[in-house]
């Protein structure tokens, strides 16, 4: 075939004619794909917001949680006053959770197992069973898994089987979020200073607004939650806009279920957080050191580690763990910014299912039906 200007023109003309003939067909296919995509977004959007955090703190007072004390339920949500009455009782400045609706305070008995399984069935009917092998296995045999775990690792609420576990994890497994938090160190430290040095919330109290005291045998442990068991605390969020923006930029922050928390945590000199377990192994707890005096230590699964200012420490809090500050009063408090991130080996489909099952309030609503 000889190449000439005339041959090129004929080829171009033939190509344009073919495109015109296929235009209607291509348009129809494009419209079908667009409709399918819109339907998928609608179905997913009914249960999951398009952005886990953006705008949630403006959703009204019914979404405001509280923080209650006790080392086994320091991230429990306050239910306030409802049909069950006041769920918090203050004793000597400490708040103790007495809510039968709090998932951390719900025993891992047959009732909880049934509610988990029914929620998983609801999810599968609405979406799919695809990729639910481990979740189904964990929900079905939850009681056996929790009771048969070795004492070094025993999550209180939910155990996902076949998940690699270790007391501490390398920062490389969540590199993006770790680097983002460490780059935000100056802003987070500045925001901590602004909320920590506020005047007391009320007369006779040493606590600035938004801070809560958790029960400890020695010293004091203060927490300032932005997100508590998957629920943003509106007033606290408004006082910390930069920290809230950082949370919104994290890729693996657990923002849509009760296993997700974010807070500033303070240990005063002489304080001890006694040994306890977290609720699940599907998350990694990340501590960004903001102020770290000498003689402060975190022990997870029998392995001790020290915090470092401006650096993140990743650990699995379903392992038995404790923390202490053995410094003097002149050393000042130990301060970390704490966030809960997804375990890297929990697949995207499993995360979506767990977000559905453990949506704040879902298990309680099912129990009432």
UniProtKB/TrEMBL annotation:
Cross-referenced InterPro entries: Asp/Arg/Pro-Hydrxlase (IPR007803), Asp/Asn_beta-hydroxylase (IPR051821), IPNS-like_sf (IPR027443)
Membrane topology note: Single-pass type II membrane protein
One Pfam family hit: Asp_Arg_Hydrox
Domain Aspartyl/asparaginy/proline hydroxylase residue range list: 212-344
Entry keyword annotation includes Membrane: yes
UniProt keyword list: Dioxygenase, Membrane, Oxidoreductase, Signal-anchor, Transmembrane, Transmembrane helix
Keyword Transmembrane helix attributed: yes
Entry's localization field: Membrane
Entry's transmembrane regions: 21-40
GO cellular component: membrane
GO molecular function, one term: dioxygenase activity
Primary location recorded for the protein, binned into one broad class: membrane
Signal peptide: none
Record family assignment: Belongs to the aspartyl/asparaginyl beta-hydroxylase family.
Protein name in the entry: Aspartate beta-hydroxylase domain-containing protein 2
